[in-house]
Design brief:
Helix 1 runs parallel beside helix 2. The mean pLDDT is about 90. Strands 1-2-3-4-5 form a five-stranded mixed sheet, covered by helices on one side. It is about 40% helix and about 25% strand. The chain is built from three helices and five strands; from the N terminus they run E-E-H-E-H-E-H-E. The chain is an alpha/beta fold and about 100 residues long. The longest helix is centred in the N-terminal third of the chain and has 16 residues. It has one domain: STAS domain (Transcription Regulator spoIIAA). Helix 1 links the parallel strand 2 and strand 3. The protein starts with a strand and ends with a strand.
Length: about 100
Amino acid sequence: MTEISRTSIGVMTYLTPSGSLGEAKDLTALEKTVAECLEAHEINLILDLADVPSINGITLEALLDIQDKLARLGGSLKIVNTNQLTRDIFTLTGFGEHVSFMD
């Protein structure tokens, strides 16, 4: 199961998954961590994908749901440290139109 570390940096909360986000059990860990952030009124999240080898349609759907929840609360989801495969998937699916990326 993927573990998600959570660090606060100013008003931003930095989430770092280690491992895959392609299975339902892995996404459950991410969704649980996001729920904990929302309970703590942390609505500006940065998701660091440096240790995530690839993503799939289930992952994209979950990230869009997270972005929608945060946007309704006045927050945002930003994604950092994507590998080339993940960037290509984001580009081909149009995902980049819905979520912000940071270098």
